[in-house]
Amino acid sequence: QVQLVESGGGLVQTGGSLRLSCAASGLIFGLNIMAWYRQAPGKQRDLVAYVTSSGVTNHADSVKGRFTISRDDNKNTVYLQMNSLKPEDTAVYYCQSAGPRGENWGLGTQVTVSA
Length: 115
Prior knowledge:
Helix content is 0%, strand content 57%. The protein has no helices and eleven strands. The radius of gyration is 13 Å and the shape is globular. The model has no long low-confidence stretch (mean pLDDT 97).
């Protein structure tokens, strides 16, 4: 079965940086669009960024210029580099794959940005 395992979350001060990783297995990674979503307490889950199988990326307006999504098809891993973090970035961050085996989600990793 498809497994997505996120890592790299934690507690950071305002202005700090974190790098999230999502390791995928059970799928042909190169055929999948990979995305990061986030969900803050009491709010809906929102798209943060995605990267297509050909490397085209898109980022939400709220993170443009601060976050960068990338993928390494040799490692079956997608990354989210987060810089200049703000308290409003606090959320659980989820990895998603979308491809021949449908949509799949990881369990999430908590990111907390202190003021």
